[in-house]
Amino acid sequence: MEEWTMGEWTPNTYFDSLYESDRDLERVAERLQAEGMRDISVAAGYGRLLTFLVAATGARRVLEIGALGGYSGICLARALPEDGRLVSLELKREYAELARENLTAAGLGDKAEYRVGEAAASLEELKREGARFDFFFIDADKENYPHYLEACIALANRGAVIAADNTLLGGKTIDETRQGPSARAMRHFNQTIARDERLQGVHLSAFDGLALARVLSGMPD
Ligand code: SAM
User: Fold this and answer.
1) Which atom of ligand 1 is nearest to the CA of 71?
2) What interface predicted TM-score (ipTM) does this complex get?
3) Does residue 210 lie in a domain region?
4) What is the DSSP letter of 171?
5) Is 176 a domain residue?
6) Sequence-ordered strand ranges (E) for 91-209
7) Is residue 16 part of a domain?
8) CA 19 – CA 4 distance, rounded (Å)
9) Cα Rg for the chain, rounded, in angstroms?
10) How many independent structural domains does the chain possess?
11) Is 1 part of any domain?
C-alpha cells in the first residue's frame, strides 16, 4: 500500500505531532548539526518504540551497537530501572564522546558505558567477560548485521529482545539488482530473523524498516 498524505501530513508527521517536544532528544539533533555530523539517528517513532520495549520487557542490561550522538541511547537508557545499564559500542571516539555528553545532559550519564572501536572486537571482549544482556539495538555498519546478530544471540539471556534498524536500506534490500555487501548482508539478516529457530522474529515496514526478534535459546537470566 502506498503511504498516503493529507496536505502536509504524513502518518509519521501526524503521530510525531501528538507527543510533547522532548528537550533531551532535540538537543541531540542540535549538537549533531552544530558538529556538522549527518543526523542518521533512529526515527522518532522507532525511538519511542525502543523506550516502550525496554520498559515493557523489564530489561536491565541493554547493548547498543552504533551510538552516533546518543539519540537511541537516550531512548533506551531512559526506560532502564535504577540499577540498569546501557553498554554502547561505537567506532569513532568523537561520536562516543558526544553521545556520552548528551546522555549526561539528559541525566542518564551514570547508566551508560561507551566502548570505542570496531564493534566486532568489543563484542568478542564482552563474550570473554561473560557479559549477558536482555535487550539489543543493532544500528551500525549494515554489512556486519548477520555477524552482529550471531554475537547478540551468544550474549543474550533467554527471552532477550533484539531490535535492528534500517532493514530496508532505502529499498536496496528488495531490489535484487543491488548486489553490494550491505544489500546482500541485509537480505541474509532479514531471512534469519524470519526463519531461524532460535528466534521469534517480526519485521516492521515503517521508516527504513525495523526488525525485532525474541531469543528463544540462551541461558535463563
Ligand atoms: N543508533 C544511533 C541513534 O539512533 O542515535 C545511530 C547510529 S548511526 C546510524 C551508525 C553508527 O554506527 C555511527 O555512529 C557509526 O560511527 C557507527 N559504526 C559504524 N561502523 C561501526 C563499527 N564497525 N563498529 C562500531 N560502530 C560502528
Assistant:
1) 5
2) 0.99
3) yes
4) G
5) yes
6) 112-116, 133-138, 156-165, 199-204
7) yes
8) 21
9) 17
10) 1
11) no
Mutate to test the pocket of ligand 1, among 141, 144, 145 (most ligand atoms within 8 A of CB): 141
> How far does residue 120's CA lie from ligand 1's centre (Å)?
12
Q: Which of 49, 139, 144, 165 to mutate to test the pocket of ligand 1 (most atoms within 8 A of CB)?
A: 139
- Match 543491488 to its residue by C-alpha cell: 178
Q: Give the residue whose CA is nearest to atom 20 of ligand 1.
A: 141
Pocket of ligand 1 (CB under 6 A): 40-42, 66-69, 71-72, 89-92, 95, 118-119, 139-141
Block residue for cell numbers 555528553: 101
Query: CATH no. for residue 149?
Result: 3.40.50.150
Residue 173's nearest CA partner among 200, 211, 215 is 211
- 25 lies in which domain range? 11-215
Regarding pTM above 0.95, the answer is: yes
Angle between helices 181-195 and 145-154 (to 10 degrees): 40
What's the pLDDT tens digit per position in 155-191? Answer: 999 999 999 999 999 999 999 999 999 999 999 999 9
Q: Can you tell me which atom of ligand 1 is nearest the CA of 70?
A: 5
